[in-house]
Amino acid sequence: MAVPLAAAVLVAGLTPARAQTPAQAAPAPPPAASRIDLSPECSVPTAKLSVIAPMPTVKAALRDDRAVRVLVIGAATGGGSFSAMPSYPERLRSELGRSFGNAEVVVVHRTLSGEVGSGAAGLVRTVTAEVGPDLVVWQVGAQDALARVSPEELTEALDETIGWLRSHDIDAVLVNPQYLAAVGDDAQYVGLVRTVDEAARRARVTLVQRYEAMRHLAGRGRERDAPSGFALSALGKRCLAEHVARTIAQAVAATEEPAPAGVPSR
Amino acid sequence: MREANAIDFWRGVALVTIFVNHIPGAVYQRLTFSQYGISDAAELFVFLAGWAIALATGRPGGADSPRRVVLRLASRTLEIYRAQILVTAVALAMIAAAAILLDNPLIIEWHNAGPVFVDPVPTTLGWVLMTHQLGYFNILPLYVGILALSPIFVLLARVSRAGALLLSASLYLAAMILELNVPSWPVEGYWFFNPLSWQFLLVLGFVAADLDRTSPAFRVWARRLQPVGILGVLAGAAVVLSDWRPDPLAVPEPRLLFLFDKTYLSPARILHFLCLLLAFQGVFAWVARIAPWLAQGGSALGRNSLEVFVLASLASLAAQFVRFVTGGGLIVDTLVVFCGLCVLSFTAWFVEWRSRSPRPSSLRD
To answer: Which of B119, B135, B323 sits opposite A148 (nearest CB)?
Structure first.
């Protein structure tokens, strides 16, 4: 179901505080109409899914009619040539291409193979330099949570990396860790989810609230067949491309038209 | 069984360091030398592998024939490949078991394992071909790659040591400048350790061992350059502790030459490692004098490096599960590191006990 961002922001304002992560409280840019539909199985209210921030570099690429290069960093979710479903990068490219009016979108995927904290931050810099993207989509926090990395170390890695990307005019999207019942009561895990949210809010970068979205999918209407455990995890993987694409499209739509090259911006 | 010696001892040190560093988040990582320099235990391990090849293929009493060199290195390559397949299979089983026992699907995504379970058809082929590698289980594929290349350099060095070094350096520079690496599959990307780059360190180790054996001047110069090594180590520690690193988008092209990149083994890492070698030469003799038990224990690990490495990899994965379940902390980290070191020591003892004991079939006689 498509939810206009204006309504989403309104809903966010009415949602009980305990259901919000700190990032949800961040002021969202002026909304723009979004016509990107989520499939029924992945349907999540926008307020639970996205916190958007400007993406001037992607907007400029679209304005200049050049290919948008997207670097996706995070665990591989399967799918592809020998699978019944396309891979996450393939789906993301297709969804973004459609939402950008069939503009050319190049999606490159890299995994971090278990690196955490500052090690992960270093690798993000390296692969970013290798790929040369307009936008980096970073699924971050899950490996750190598994390794019990401290929130301070993750905060430092996030702040440093986001600042570095911004200094090179590269847009960023953070995707926080997934929700599963097994980690719902794990204070350290939830603490790292909040650490990612706070870093996004502080730096004013777009955030995909995967944790909130999957929690919504897990408890949707208390349906008898609500997914849990491995089924929920599989559903989360299937929905990831839709959720990320929808959030990016909304953020780009809400971004002011950047000044043409050579014209100083305000 | 060989007597305790510097090569085995430093290999043992590298194995212990790799074990601890493969438990991300553990407080004891701060005690490893890798945290205070640009290079780490991987460089030490590969350099010593090259040194060991020189010892194994060029004995003072008469070098192996070319045919025997190729066969011995091919045999060792297969042995390491077999170890990689075994350790990956056991690690995947451990990850699956932990996910089931803890009823936590998140665990199957541990260290790039997700595609093996979610997309098993191509990924099974991928991990058997080593084009899909689990995080922290990617050193043995590198070792397979560089050992497979090594006969070329070993045999060329018999004709011209400089020629072997030049060929190796050319391949290293070409890989770095043209960014050539082995692709991963089915997941998009490249090998974490690029064998086309890391072969250079193996050849450096091989040539250094050859010079150490045949050239008195080499030893003299190594001793004279020790202060330079110490300065280099201090400079490396200052760089790491100040958290400075080159900006990969601000350095000139070819950018990998100016970074601290581990995948392509940037020159700064090699320089730092050579400084470590110069600075710490002679330390083994000092350890053997004041703590012989430590020299013997470290050497025992190094003598049985492949078996100890395999168990160390699995022990570090088990330690990660324990930290996840318990939440980690100083007490847990102390316990898991202590237990891990016991496993490593027992493995070394057990392998040597097996080699000394009569084969089980002889019991039937």
So the answer is: B323
d(CA B167, CA A212): 55
Q: Which helix (H) or strand (E) holds B333?
A: helix B330-356
Q: Is B121 on the interface with A (CB under 8 A)?
A: yes
Tokens 């390794």 -> residue: A147
Cβ A175 vs Cβ A140: under 8 Å: yes
Q: Tell how strand A206-208 and strand A50-51 pair up.
A: antiparallel
The pLDDT assigned to B96 comes to 95
Q: What residues 95-124 of chain A have any CB closer than 8 A to a CB of chain B?
A: 108-117, 119, 122
**What is the distance, to the nearest Å, from the Cα of residue B323 to the centroid of all Cα atoms in its chain?**
24
DSSP characters over A176-242? PPPP-HHHHT-HHHHHHHHHHHHHHHHHT-EEE-HHHHHHHHHTGGG-TT---HHHHHHHHHHHHHH
Interface contact flag, A129 B133, Cβ < 8 Å: no
What is the Cα–Cα distance from B277 to B282, expressed in whole angstroms? 10
Answer for the pair B167, B175: CB distance below 8 angstroms, yes or no: no
How far apart are the C-alpha atoms of B201 and B4, rounded to whole Å? Answer: 24
Cα A215–Cα A219–Cα A223 angle in degrees, nearest 5: 155
Task: Calculate the CA dihedral of residues A152, B16, B126, B172 and round it to 10 degrees.
Answer: 90
Q: B118 vs A98, A215, B105, B108, B320, CA distance in Å?
A: 27, 21, 11, 9, 22
Tell me the mean pLDDT in the region A232-244.
89
The sheet carrying A50-51 orders its strands as: A50-51, A206-208, A171-175, A135-139, A68-73, A105-110
pTM of the model: 0.87
- Residue count of chain B: 365
ipTM beyond 0.90?
A: no
Structure tokens at B21: 């560093």
The fraction of chain B above a pLDDT of 70, given in percent, is: 97
End-to-end Cα, chain A, rounded Å: 37
> B166: distance to nearest CA of chain A, Å?
27
